[in-house]
Amino acid sequence: MRRSMLVSLVLIGFASVGGAHAAAPYINCPAASALDERTICRTIRLVQLDAEMATLYRLTLSLVGMGTRDSIKDEQADWLRARRACRTSVPCLRNHYEDRIETLDAILDRVRSEGPF
Q1: What is the pLDDT of residues 107-116, one digit of tens each?
Q2: Considering only CA atoms, which of 50, 45, 38, 52 is closest in space to residue 91?
Q3: 91: Cβ–Cβ under 8 A, 6 or more apart, which residues?
Q4: How far apart are CA 41 and CA 112, in angstroms?
Q5: CA pair distance 99, 105, nearest whole angstrom
Q6: Angstrom distance (rounded) from CA 87 to CA 28
Q7: What distance in Å separates the CA atoms of residue 18 and residue 24, rounded to the nearest whole number?
Q8: Residue 30 phi, psi (nearest 5)
Q9: Which run of H or E residues covers position 73?
Q10: How far apart are CA 41 and CA 30, in angstroms?
Q11: Domain residue limits, the chain
Q12: pLDDT band at residue 26, thresholds of 50, 70 and 90?
C-alpha cells in the first residue's frame, strides 16, 4: 500500500516536471527484439511492473550517493541478464520484477529513515 502511494506520487512528480516521457516504461516496446522484452510488451501487467520498476530505479539513483549508485547500476545489469533468461515465461518475468521492486523499495525505505547515502 505504501509503495503504491509512493509510486503514484513519484509518477505525478515526474509528469509535472518532465512530461509523460519521464514516467515511460524502461522497455521501448516498438523496438523490442529480445524474447523477454517482446513478452513483457504483450502482457499488460508486465508493462505496468516495468514502468513501476523503472520509476523506482530512477528515483533510487537520484537519492543515493555515487558509490551506492554504482552498486545499484551493477545490480540492475545483473537483474537484466537474469530477466533475459526468463525468455517467454510470464511467471518468471513477473517474479523477477516483483523481486527487483522489493529490493529498490528496501533501498528507498533506508533513504527515508537514514537520509541519502
Answers
A1: 999 999 987 6
A2: 45
A3: none
A4: 32
A5: 10
A6: 17
A7: 11
A8: -60, -25
A9: helix 66-85
A10: 9
A11: 25-114
A12: confident
**Cell representation of residue 56:** 523506482
* Local structure of 88: helix, strand or coil: coil
Compute CA 76 distance to the chain's CA centroid, rounded to the nearest angstrom. Answer: 9
Interatomic CA distance for residues 38 and 115, integer angstroms: 38
Amino acid in position 93: L
Which triple of cell numbers denotes residue 50? 516495468
22-31, 67-76, 84-93: which has the highest mean pLDDT?
84-93
Residue written as grid cell 533513504? 111
Kindly list the distances between the CA atom of residue 45 and the CA atoms of 6, 38, 42, 62, 88, in Å, as whole numbers in the listed order. Answer: 19, 13, 9, 26, 14
CA-to-CA distance for 53 and 7, rounded, in angstroms? 9
At 3 the pLDDT is 55
Cβ burial of 83 (10 Å; 0-12, 13-18, 19+) is buried
Distances (CA, A) of 58 to 39, 90, 108: 23, 24, 11
